[in-house]
Specification:
Elements: E1 4-6, E2 16-22, E3 26-33, E4 38-45, H1 53-66, E5 73-79, H2 82-88, E6 95-100, H3 106-109, E7 134-137, E8 140-141, E9 147-149, H4 153-165, E10 170-173, H5 183-195, E11 200-203, H6 204-207, H7 213-243, E12 250-253, E13 259-261, H8 262-267, H9 275-291, E14 295-301, E15 306-312, E16 315-316, E17 318-319, E18 322-324, E19 327-329, E20 333-334, E21 337-339, E22 345-349, E23 355-361, H10 380-387, H11 404-418, H12 422-448, E24 456-460, H13 464-475, E25 479-482, H14 489-496, E26 499-510, H15 516-536, E27 543-553, E28 560-564, H16 566-570, H17 574-589, E29 598-609, E30 614-616, E31 624-625, E32 630-635, E33 640-647, E34 655-658, E35 661-664, E36 669-672, E37 677-680, E38 686-689
Parallel strand pairs: 2-5, 5-12, 6-7, 6-10, 10-11, 14-24, 24-25, 31-34, 33-35
Antiparallel strand pairs: 1-30, 2-3, 3-4, 8-9, 12-13, 14-15, 15-16, 15-21, 17-20, 18-19, 22-23, 25-38, 26-29, 27-28, 27-29, 32-33, 34-37, 35-36, 37-38
Helix pairs in contact: 2-7, 4-5, 9-14, 10-11, 10-12, 11-12, 12-13
Length: about 700
């Protein structure tokens, strides 16, 4: 990503814009000096015992190496895994749930679905709130919004006392039909705040006011569960930045691929649970548009997981129901599929003598054995070293030196158990990792109804380029595009992201010309919310308001999201809305009912405030064969071959070469299999094509 420029240029002083992504193993920095167009990038090992400390370390290194001045930082955006790690590790706040009397089992019943429907040994996860911390309150709102029973505040007071006695730090209030009118939840929340000001309280309607009590309750619970750790982390972050003299307000990447300020992040914690994975897709979308790529499959491999997403028409795809650990998240999010296979994924031999890879990861501490930081178990990274693809240069901007002897030792232990040569064992580890990713990608393609042969694979993250070309070859994909700095694409995503707020209102309305006035009124109310939200984020530019509806045929249990044009509502064009629904239904399910009665369930609005306008400098391609830095032995599966090693810094637009080959750079290593033809384009992307 060398050679980025921006249209907004200050005249008298430096203008630094910094994007940061905190992963499980590394924290990535992408810093742009807007006046000169110079882009600096960096990786720093994470400090799990003190999240955020590595951020200060990175800023110090940027100052030493790149002349970065924190006092001249005008934009600071970062994504963090603090929230999602809190859920995965189950280290969140002890919570109590106040719900309707008689509905105390709402989060245990959930949707009565098993995670693996064909497994006899499958079990559902334990709820984040145990049954003894769920309190039924005599209160009832009817579906039409009329009150059947007012909340019994004496019972509320008794429940508050019991919750505090049981160690609750916070309370979630979720009542039936609060999506219609939230007055009962608000009244109980106010009473709790008066009786127990030391407890934090969230109501389901303020977090995400959508129909279906389980989805609304679980989203509010996730928000409360991570609130203390996220709020504490962000407060410490603000103090650290202030101490470093950073004038820019910290902004956070959101699960929906947009941004919000840190003050909102302390309250709306649930919105940033998937911030890191979403940032990667947003960064990849921006890179795809710059390169003119229309259809992209992203492959983001870090130390712990591999994340996949589809980019169609240069835009990320969105959805709801993404999994946070074992729990679904019911707010709009960039659609990402994940699997527990990363560079730090540990290889093991089970009791039956079968070689397995992941999901356990060595993380950053101790990390893969080859890092020399105390790791004693073989990982995917160690297997890459043993095969010879990795270990020929410093890694992570000089912070790591690969110890090939340690990698051979730990993989050799597995080889002895399997009674196989060490190189074959290492290749088997890589084959298993690729095959597990293959299965997950095929699921994603089937759900989306796309043919991956029409897509280009974009590998990024520290591990994406190591395995990406092998996965593309197995999937039958013909093209791979690796950005100039694959290791910091997620950090770039934060740098180029827009402000984005999502708003929803549940209505039940048949689609007809008579009902459009009510639908239009709901959209106008959401539009006011969206504009007010952008103003609170201090956005003073134009606002883009995107409209959609969740719709279904009458009698269906679930609905689909349909994008609407504003003029359809302005003109009262119910026919156009119906046609859009039929078309979307046909695309998703391969059928539609042109005579079916249509029902609108939710109206949605996305308020977008454009981020900084950045673009790449382009350089003319001069076709010439690349000159390798040296040649080296690599075990390719069929045997040991002597392959070319190229320095990415020496590759210029128009450089060509063929695989098998290794390309080294500061933030990652690109392994290129036999048969691939490589070319550097005018944006310094490395393009691979495979023969038919």
């Amino acid at each position: 990503m060398d050679g980025v420029i921006t249209a907004d240029k200050a005249q008298n002083r430096a203008d630094w814009k910094v994007g940061i992504d905190i992963g499980g193993t590394f924290i990535d920095f992408c810093a742009l000096e807007a006046n000169s167009g110079r882009l600096a990038s960096l990786k720093v090992l994470t400090t799990p015992e003190d999240p955020g400390a590595e951020l200060m370390t990175g800023l110090t290194l940027l100052a030493e190496r790149e002349g970065f001045d924190p006092a001249h930082m005008t934009r600071f955006v970062h994504g963090t895994t603090v929230g999602i790690n809190t859920i995965i590790q189950r280290k969140g706040a002890p919570l109590a749930l106040f719900t309707n009397a008689g509905f105390e089992d709402v989060i245990e019943l959930a949707r009565l679905r098993m995670p693996e429907m064909y497994s006899l040994f499958c079990s559902r996860p334990d709820p984040l709130i145990s049954r003894d911390m769920v309190f039924g309150i005599p209160v009832r709102m009817r579906a039409d919004g009329s009150e059947s029973q007012a909340p019994d505040m004496a019972v509320v007071a008794s429940a508050v006392a019991a919750a505090k006695a049981n160690g609750a730090q916070g309370i979630i209030v979720s009542f039936l039909h609060s999506w219609r009118i939230a007055a009962q939840e608000a009244a109980v929340k106010a009473t709790i705040a008066r009786l127990a000001p030391d407890l934090f309280v969230f109501s389901s309607a303020e977090v995400w006011p959508v129909i279906r009590e389980y989805e609304r309750s679980s989203t509010a619970i996730l928000n409360g569960y991570v609130h203390p750790r996220v709020s504490g982390y962000l407060t410490a972050l603000e103090e650290r930045l202030k101490d470093r003299g950073v004038p820019a307000r910290p902004m956070l990447t959101k699960s929906n691929g947009g941004l919000m300020n840190a003050a909102e992040g302390k309250r709306a914690c649930v919105n940033m649970l998937l911030s890191g994975t979403a940032s990667g897709v947003i960064g990849a979308s921006w890179l795809a548009r710059q390169a003119g790529e229309d259809k992209i499959l992203t492959l983001d491999i870090g130390g712990t997981s591999a994340d996949f997403a589809l980019i169609i028409g240069g835009e990320a795809q969105f959805g709801t129901g993404e999994l946070i650990g074992e729990f679904p998240l019911h707010i709009p999010s960039v659609s990402v599929s994940s699997i527990g296979v990363g560079g730090g994924s540990i290889a093991s031999v089970d009791a039956q003598g079968v070689l397995r890879v992941g999901p356990e990861s060595a993380g950053s501490t101790p990390g893969p054995a080859c890092y020399g930081r105390g790791g004693e178990r073989a990982t995917v990274t160690d297997a890459m070293v043993v095969c010879g693809w990795l270990g020929h240069s410093e890694m992570a901007y000089g912070q790591l030196r690969i110890d090939t002897g340690l990698a051979h030792r730990v993989v050799g232990k597995l080889a002895a158990r399997l009674d196989r040569p060490v190189e074959q064992t290492a290749q088997a580890i890589l084959d298993i990792a690729v095959s597990e990713m293959f299965v997950e990608v095929e699921k994603l393609a089937s759900r989306a109804g796309v043919d991956l042969r029409d897509f280009t694979l974009m590998p990024f993250g520290g591990g994406g380029p190591m395995l990406g070309a092998f996965l593309a070859r197995e999937l039958g994909m013909k093209r791979v595009m690796a950005p100039r700095r694959p290791g910091v694409v997620s950090a770039l995503g934060g740098l180029v992201a827009d402000l984005r707020g999502d708003f929803i209102r549940t209505i039940f309305s048949p689609l007809s010309s008579m009902s459009l006035a009510g639908i239009r009124e709901a959209f106008e109310a959401l539009a006011r919310e969206g504009r007010d939200w952008l103003a609170a984020q201090r956005h003073d530019g134009a606002a883009e308001l995107n409209l959609s509806c969740d719709m279904r045929y009458v009698g269906q249990s679930y609905e689909i999201e349909v994008v609407l044009s504003p003029e359809w509502l302005t003109d009262g064009n119910a026919v156009a809305i119906a046609q859009a629904f039929h078309l979307t239904h046909q695309q998703l399910y391969d059928f539609h009912d042109p005579d079916g009665e249509i029902e609108l369930v939710n109206v949605r609005l996305s308020a977008v405030g454009a981020g900084p306008k950045l673009s790449f400098l382009e350089t003319d391609e001069i076709r010439a064969a690349a000159v390798p830095a040296r040649r080296l032995p690599v075990y390719t599966g069929a045997g040991v071959e002597t392959v070319d090693l190229h320095d990415r810094q020496a590759l210029v637009p128009g450089s060509t070469f063929h695989g098998p080959a290794v390309v080294v750079q500061e933030d990652t290593t690109f392994a290129i299999p036999a048969g691939a033809q490589a070319r550097v384009d005018r944006h310094l992307n490395l393009l691979l094509t495979f023969p038919e």
